[in-house]
Specification:
Length: 110
Amino acid sequence: MTNPTPEWHYEYLPYTVTESDGSERELPNYRIFPDDAPEEYIAETNEHLPGDVQESHALLIAAAPQLLDALSYFFNIMHDYESSAEKGYIEVALDQARAAILRATGRASV
């Protein structure tokens, strides 16, 4: 099954903030972008949130096309469950869903 949209990825692009005492600190920030046009980013995380929360948001957003594909495939085969099971489509749907969930939760390599 081909993706109707390109894959999305994210990158860590922190801001540097200068404090009132002149010291600098890193402010976490993530950008989500399509594979075929990295300069045209889709979203940015909220730099006011903790870094780990921002990364979990970036993971979920970047996995959105894969999650949509898995859900669409599942929806399309469920109209005839018995036939889909006989043809092996249920296993394909489970594999797609598993891969999408692993990616969205940061437990899979891209």
